[in-house]
Amino acid sequence: MDMTTRYLGLTLEHPVVASASPLSGTLDGIRRLEDAGAAAVVLPSLFEERIQREREAMQGLSEVGAESHAEVPGGYFPSASLETIGIGGEETLELIRRARESCDIPVIPSLNGTTARGWTHYAKLMQQAGAPAIELNIYYVAADLDESGQQVEDRVVGILEMVQSEVSVPVAVKLGPFFSAPGHMVRRLVETGAGGLVLFNRFYQPEIDLQAMRALPTLDLSTSAEARLPLRWVGILHGHVDGAAIAATTGVQGAEDVMKFILAGADVVMTASALLRYGPAHMKTLVTGLRAFLEVGGYETVDQARGALSHKAIGDTAAYERANYLQVLDSFRTADFHP
């Protein structure tokens, strides 16, 4: 079974990639993921705010960093996530260097910043350290009521343009799903030169602590049910973003989820929650399971399966979505539910 996959100009042994998590924050963790069979590894995001805090710790820049995102005051922007734990600027650059020397699989750094200097400066340093590609993790919640949808799109495109002007390696953009027209947003990014789209960034939602009477950032591992949103958009976009690869992420727990994303049209499938939940060895389960699904389906290569059930392969996207919507509604009848 040939599962060779191309992503961001890189040739991967198969399409299953370990996305950013604490597991990929150390060289030992990266080696464990490689030994378990990961085709590539994404490093935890390097945040511009973290660099600022390292430089001016104890001077209150953590509060400034939160405000710079135009988030709701009081903690609605998470102070920590799967991708922000325990790794700083020089640590990231050194990890890139050491991983390039020690590992046989691509190790892709992830960058998250809010200003021109933050993005462009560290993207250049990452390339100089040996990064084969860069992932831009655009974790931005448009909570400013005076900011229009057009302005939000322009912000994202502007960030990509700044980075592209500084580096020559392929750049993937990790997006959230909350755009009025996600397809148009993706097209703008591809036209700007994005080498890949990572769909979707999973925003961490606030919880209300009734005892403390305050909002708290929360972090829950994803489940397979959450794969449906990126599954839809991977299926819609496959075949319409020539020149850019599609990486599916969120909700990947088992080999079934990987196979579904491949059939929808994903070039690579990323997971972090499953590896945190079951351990790095689960990567082998995902890869072995994908191979089994491909063999049962009669495919000789993963490319033959990729996009076989995309919206382009099935037919008119709009009609398909509308028919699906009505069919689902009709399938739920009051008589089917019992108190």
TrEMBL record:
UniProt keyword annotation of Ribosomal protein present: no
GO (cellular component) term, any one: cytoplasm
Protein name: Dihydroorotate dehydrogenase (Fumarate)
SUPFAM superfamilies named among the record's database cross-references: FMN-linked oxidoreductases (SSF51395)
InterPro entries, per the entry: Aldolase_TIM, DHO_dehydrogenase, Dihydroorotate_DH_1_2, Dihydroorotate_DH_cat
Pfam families reported for this sequence: DHO_dh
UniProt keyword terms in alphabetical order: Flavoprotein, FMN, Oxidoreductase, Pyrimidine biosynthesis
